[in-house]
Amino acid sequence: MNTTIKEIEIRQRLSELNLNLTEGLTFLPEEIETISSSDDLVFADSLTQIRKLFKANNVEFTTLGAEASKFRARKTADIYLPGLFISVGLLSDNPAAISVALSVLANYVTDFFKGTVGSKKASLDIYVEKTDKKIVTKISYTGDSEGIKNLEGIIKELK
């Protein structure tokens, strides 16, 4: 399991792209910190299935940039999950939703790797909003499905 944590100013970046975050859970495109235009929004191909699973488990979410239309598929044994933004309001008012969302992601990864051998890694970026709404903490995770569930503790410590 490999986890890195850093603080970023994502709201300024999104403002430059004429995009706005909503309260709650929001799926973010890949490379959100470096894209030059909102036309360049590309999501992990796993987003389609994960949105279905979130709906089936009554996890409310939005997707940045209206509907995702561009997806990046990778030819690798690893799985790349879409970025997930967690608003300070959700973190304070409904921390159980975060637990459910991480469990859904962990179960999806477990199912994805069923029957495979060798190294099994999932990659996930989680963006946790701080109370001042200017700074966001980015948690970049690479590891197995069990480690995804453990991210909840890290997220709660950031509160």
H/E element sequence:
EHEEHEEEEHHEEH
The strand count comes to 9
Rg from C-alpha positions? Answer: 15 Å
Helix content: 25-40%
Write down the domain tally: 1
Instruction: Assess the beta-strand content as a share of residues.
Output: 15-25%
Large-scale geometry? globular
Low-confidence stretches: none
Terminal CA distance reads 22 Å
Helix count from the secondary structure assignment: 5
Q: Biggest sheet, in brief?
A: 7 strands, mixed
Give the rounded overall mean pLDDT: 88
Instruction: Please identify the structural class as seen in this structure.
Output: alpha/beta
General description of the model:
With 159 residues, the chain is an alpha/beta fold. The chain has one domain (2-158). The chain is built from 5 helices and 9 strands. Helix 4 packs antiparallel against helix 5.
Summarize the structure.
With 159 residues, the protein is α/β, with parallel strands linked by helices. The protein has 5 helices and 9 strands; from the N terminus they run E-H-E-E-H-E-E-E-E-H-H-E-E-H.
Give the arrangement of secondary structure elements.
Elements: E1 2-8, H1 10-16, E2 25-28, E3 43-44, H2 47-56, E4 62-63, E5 71-72, E6 79-80, E7 83-86, H3 88-93, H4 95-113, E8 122-129, E9 136-143, H5 145-158
Parallel strand pairs: 2-4, 3-5, 6-8, 7-8
Antiparallel strand pairs: 1-9, 2-7, 8-9
Task: Sum up the structure in keywords.
7-stranded mixed β-sheet, 9 strands, alpha/beta, 159 residues, two-stranded parallel sheet, globular
